[in-house]
Specification:
Elements: E1 2-3, E2 6-7, E3 13-15, H1 24-32, E4 38-39, E5 43-44, H2 45-49, H3 53-57, E6 68-73, H4 77-89, E7 94-99, H5 104-107, H6 119-132, E8 137-142, H7 152-161, E9 166-170, H8 184-192, E10 200-203, H9 209-219, E11 223-226, H10 236-246, H11 255-289, H12 297-303, H13 309-323
Parallel strand pairs: 3-11, 4-6, 5-6, 6-7, 7-8, 8-9, 9-10, 10-11
Antiparallel strand pairs: 1-2
Helix pairs in contact: 1-11, 4-6, 9-10, 11-13
Length: about 350
């Protein structure tokens, strides 16, 4: 699969851009375990052109992360074009436009998936951004605004016609948010459309190696993008790649291995964000690293309330001692075949 001149090999695995999740420390973990392409947290166009500190900080990328994309969102064309130029100047391989975020405060203003209610504006914004930057522009979007307007086949053609280099489709409408099941049939329809020549990347409910394999085999997508299933499980990229290559499932990491992963993640969080920011950032990941452990509530509460890094590391070591022999091998999501 290629995005512009960027050769990603066969069946690449993408880490989805996620606000307050795909920061540098989490991206470090996902790259370590085999993510082929990653994205920054999505960045508001207004923040970039105002030089707002929080938005600009999200432009920071590192050589070991490459290839990487910077994703921007907004509801007005001129600010988005200017923001795209700023993003491109930060040196990513890809500039990505978010036409998929369903959150009310974003979509309600006409940004993110809200742009699906004004397709001509979406297309014109994309055309202007493609013309404005010197690297591949990609788009992430949804099937449509609601059940009555699943117009992704038309949208895909029109975005391709104005020059995007790849399209990622989340298999839900905006009105679904993240509820229900992702509908991959329309993603497959876009991919099978003889008019489509650019890569199509599928996204939605990819939470196991079997689901990733079925997405490639049944729907013919060029790549899969993984979002929520990476929470506390950055090794999912290694699992999927191994299964795609060998047809075999890897054993789940033991609790002791998960403790070491959490400690490394915490170390990187402190490195990138300092003592206070690093502690606050890692908290959302601790419970997901150890999801399913019995009688874990008190320890989880401790991990998300402690501020002293040494105490946090000591608590993680206690997790290894107390639950080190717990069998996590059954913690594997079901196959996709029954619900697509």
């Amino acid at each position: 699969m290629k995005i512009g001149d960027l050769d990603l090999g066969a069946k690449p695995l993408f880490l989805a851009p996620m606000e307050d999740v795909t920061d540098p420390s989490f991206r470090y973990m996902c790259k370590r375990y085999g993510a082929d392409v990653m994205y920054t947290e999505f960045i508001p166009a207004d923040g970039l052109i105002r030089d707002a500190a929080k938005a600009v900080a999200k432009l920071s990328i590192f050589d070991y992360e490459r290839p990487i994309g910077i994703q921007i969102y907004g509801h007005e064309i001129e600010p988005m074009v200017e923001a795209a130029r700023v993003a491109a100047a930060a040196g990513p391989e890809i500039v990505d436009i978010n036409f998929g975020c369903p959150v009310k405060k974003i979509a309600g203003r006409g940004a993110g998936s809200g742009m699906m209610r004004d397709v001509p504006k979406m297309v014109e914004m994309t055309r202007r951004i493609v013309e404005a930057v010197d690297r591949p522009v990609t788009v992430k979007t949804r099937l449509g605004w609601d059940e009555e307007s699943k117009n992704i086949v038309e949208i895909a053609e029109r975005l391709q016609d104005v020059g995007i280099a790849a399209l990622t489709i989340h298999g839900r409408t905006r009105s679904q948010m993240y509820r229900g099941e992702a509908d991959w049939t329309l993603i497959g329809e876009v991919k099978r459309n003889p008019r489509m020549t650019i890569p199509v990347i599928g996204n939605g409910d990819i939470n196991s190696p079997e689901r990733a394999a079925e997405a490639f085999d049944r729907y013919g997508v060029d790549g899969v993008m993984i979002g929520r299933a990476t929470y506390g499980r950055p090794w999912i990229f290694r699992e999927i790649r191994h299964y795609l290559t060998t047809g075999e499932l890897l054993p789940q990491p033991s609790v002791r291995e998960r403790v070491e992963l959490a400690k490394l993640h915490f170390e990187k969080s402190l490195e990138f964000k300092g003592p206070k920011g690093g502690v606050l950032e890692i908290r959302r990941h601790f419970s997901t690293y150890f999801k399913g452990l019995p009688d874990f509530k008190a320890t989880r509460l401790k991990l998300v309330t402690l501020f002293d890094p040494d105490e946090i590391v000591a608590t993680l070591d206690q997790v290894a001692e107390q639950w080190g022999d717990y069998d996590v091998s059954a913690d594997v999501p079901p196959s996709l075949s029954h619900d697509l």
